[in-house]
Predict the structure.
Amino acid sequence: MDALGHVNNGRYVDYLQDARVDFLFRTAKELGADNLETGLLVARHEVQYRAPLHFRREPVRIELWISEIRAASFTVDYEILDAEPQRRTYVEARTKLVPFDFAANRLRRITPVERETLSKLVGA
Amino acid sequence: MSFTHQVLVRWSDIDSYDHVNNVRYFDYLQEARIAFLAQVMGTTGDFFAEYPCVLASQTVDYLRPILLRHPPYDVDVWIESVGTSSYTLGSRIMDRSGESDDVYAKAESVVVAVDGTTHAKRSLGEAERAALLRHVATT
């Protein structure tokens, strides 16, 4: 909560990060892509704030899916919303991620295994 | 006027990749944005009490990793455009400690003026709008 009594704009990006890390480091690993967590950088965030979120006991829901896969980047789309049945949207966001090889200190292409795994999460 | 706010990286801003976590950039940008707007409007107290507003959207491009080090980074902020009830801020995180002027991140933030009580969208006041227009810059 910030001085305006609602969740501060940056904290939504923390929520998105928690969801994304779980999605890519756990779900994608279970599906076979176990190298993403060793080097994956955020290249761009786009965040649309639709409605303020105030303090409350109930958690909010974050839905996320892969929206695009390119040669050396992919995109995650998210929505922060109330669970069924209201489905009121608080935030819509998009993150472009690039696999990075820290040992070689350079960007790398998406491997065939990663591409196959990420494809299963498109629009999931 | 060109406006620059200096940000010193905190120990706790670093994540397991040994660089500043992407989310912390939002905090750096926010710190600079609020300092900029307070200066533009000439307020010394609570900026939001006098000119209530909320963020409608934000886009951040990450160009270089920010590392833990002592010289602070510079966050430049300027106004890109002013509408009837909203305005767009441009910002960038720079390193001016050495020879080069490297850009670490670029951001665009759309701010909407709201009523302090109801939080409904409001038109920008005349003085508010004039002050913002004086700081429009293109880069």
Chain B has one domain: 3-133. Chain B touches chain A at residues 17, 21-23, 26-27, 30, 46, 48, 54-62, 65, 119 (CB under 8 Å). The longest strand of chain B covers residues 102-113.
